[in-house]
Amino acid sequence: xxxxxxxxxxxxxxxxxxxxxxxxxxxxxxxxxxxxxxxxxxxxxxxxxxxxxxxxxxxxxxxxxxxxxxxxxxxxxxxxxxxxxxxxxxxxxxxxxxxxxxxxxxxxxxxxxxxxxxxxxxxxxxxxxxxxxxxxxxxxxxxxxxxxxxxxxxxxxxxxxxxxxxxxxxxxxxxxxxxxxxxxxxxxxxxxxxxxxxxxxxxxxxxxxxxxxxxxxxxxxxxxxxxxxxxxxxxxxxxxxxxxxxxxxxxxxxxxxxxxxxxxxxxxxxxxxxxxxxxxxxxxxxxxxxxxxxxxxxxxxxxxxxxxxxxxxxxxxxxxxxxxxxxxxxxxxxxxxxxxxxxxxxxxxxxxxxxxxxxxxxxxxxxxxxxxxxxxxxxxxxxxxxxxxxxxxxxxxxxxxxxxxxxxxxxxxxxxxxxxxxxxxxxxxxxxxxxxxxxxxxxxxxxxxxxxxxxxxxxxxxxxxxxxxxxxxxxxxxxxxxxxxxxxxxxxxxxxx
Length: 497
Known about the structure:
Blueprint: E1 2-9, E2 13-21, E3 26-35, E4 39-41, E5 44-46, H1 49-65, E6 73-77, E7 83-86, H2 107-112, H3 117-124, H4 133-143, H5 145-150, E8 153-156, H6 157-166, E9 171-172, H7 173-176, E10 182-183, E11 188-189, H8 191-196, E12 207-208, E13 212-216, H9 219-225, E14 231-234, H10 239-246, E15 254-259, E16 262-269, H11 276-280, E17 284-287, E18 293-300, H12 303-314, H13 321-329, H14 351-361, H15 370-396, E19 402-406, H16 413-423, E20 426-429, H17 434-446, H18 453-463, E21 467-469, H19 474-490
Parallel strand pairs: 1-6, 6-14, 9-12, 15-19, 19-20
Antiparallel strand pairs: 1-2, 2-3, 4-5, 7-8, 10-11, 13-14, 15-16, 16-18, 17-18, 20-21
Enzyme class: transferase
Family: Belongs to the FGGY kinase family.
InterPro entries: ATPase_NBD, Carb_kinase_FGGY, FGGY_C, FGGY_N, Rhamnulokinase
């Protein structure tokens, strides 16, 4: 039995999983899990990247204590768009910003003064959004240009952490495609675009293919942890690319959903889809672990519930998942609905109040009980995924017959069942730890233990449980969708409050 370390770092928590492979089946063991939240300081949101790095080493230490003394390799996947800047001496410059920092709010307008949204989308395939790397760099250039003046290289978050372990600077393909700086036609950094926006053209570290073996862990780390030298692999660096790699999809008429803080829904395509409709509807094109493209929409996910729980907890109202489920079952179906992707819900100071205010402004009944709030969120999320599915079919001229969901969010049975109900599609859910498994798959392929992604997905299907959800109550959900569509078309914005 051979083992690899898969570091799967999300925007709310991080974990180290040991993936073991005997040539036929995979086995997964969680070794270490830790919280990961942006730190608010001096009016900005930062990632505590040094603590993340220390927690990763803590996990490696625990792994050794658990008997995993011989590990073939490690790889790191994270959320997209964020990065760290290195000086010419290779030292980290400043604290990396979180994509939720408001300093990028005006960047889209500044970029549009030099390059239209249509041209930007046509070149990069990425839907313009304030969170994108390009907007963060424009904001830094406007507000704190000294950072860029002193920076020699930019490394995206998984590659920054890989650099800490190896001293090697490189940006992996899948994570690079999230930046809105990667030219989908030239298949490299768009230097002309960076020049137009006064971003140093040599700032971005070179792009390497998914599965590139970067090199061994540094001697200093080997001594600190008491480990043998371990190969560090630039596996699929974006967690969604990892999740898609792990889903045992067998048909090109299957949509995927990566479910967590965000929920990303899409379909794999050979070439980027950069039509006017794709831009209008907010779709984006990002890389897959096998070098193709995932056409997807980044939609709000369980962030809404996480933020409500945070408010309730501060108020001393801590309830279990079972209590939440009981409360939902005793609440009224479709009492109120929201467009979960409305900007009002991106990062409000109080999510509970924001939900109530949205319902008031849209002339609906306001949620009262915890069950009302949770049901409103889950029903609205599921209805939005039907909207996304319909748009995917229009963009690809393809009938989508099945939805495959993966990630931690599928542990919420209601989310899976409601998605089946809202879309009138069969839903297959699993595996739960899709990102970690996809991370490991990239490593096993790079190490030559698994031939390719097709073989890897067959191994995943034989190694981890899947659950099937069939659509229910179609008439009720159709009526709710007609109400929901009116909210989406109304495009309520909370900008005047």
